[in-house]
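hiii, so i know i said id send this last week but things got crazy w the move. better late than never?? heres the sequnce for the chain we talked about at the cafe, plus the structure i predicted for it. fair warning i was half asleep when i ran it
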Amino acid sequence: MPQTQTPPSLINAQGQQNRPLVKCFIANQDALKSFFRRAVGEQADADDLFQKLLMKALKIECSAHIDNPLAYGYRMAKHLVIDHHREQNKSPESLEHEPESNALSLENLLEQEQRLRLYQQVLTQMSALRRDVFIRRRLHGESRQQIAQSLGLSEEAVKKHISRAMDMLKDAISEFIAD
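okay and structure toks below
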């Protein structure tokens, strides 16, 4: 692969590169750009990330010797890719000047109302005992043991009532979604 040219802005006034990391990254720029290209998909983004990598390398004071500068470069590159993806995932709808609303959208409210009516309908179809067991467990958070003791049932019976109530709800939801 032919080496691409080093941007003149990265060469100091004497015409020589002044940092060992920069020298290493430029010597391995095809491999580093290839890494970026695989990670971000776009050549322009890969080139931009390589420039950011070089700029970071220029800012690093090499007071301590780095045993493997290329491995260090790949670690830096990985972090740049992560930052790039985070920036890309920010939605343009979340602009700072746009006021945030905690209110539900009309569509979500209607969907919640439909779901609530469905749950109520399924609960009314259950036997009184099953409905009582289910509500105590799922809405009030009582343990199976507490429910069994207060209703004079075995824990296994309570478990079966809860399981069958859940099955009824799942079936109703499946039918609702299929419609």
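btw The helical segments are 20-27, 29-40, 43-59, 69-89, 106-125, 128-139, 144-151, 155-178. thought thatd interest u
miss u guys!!
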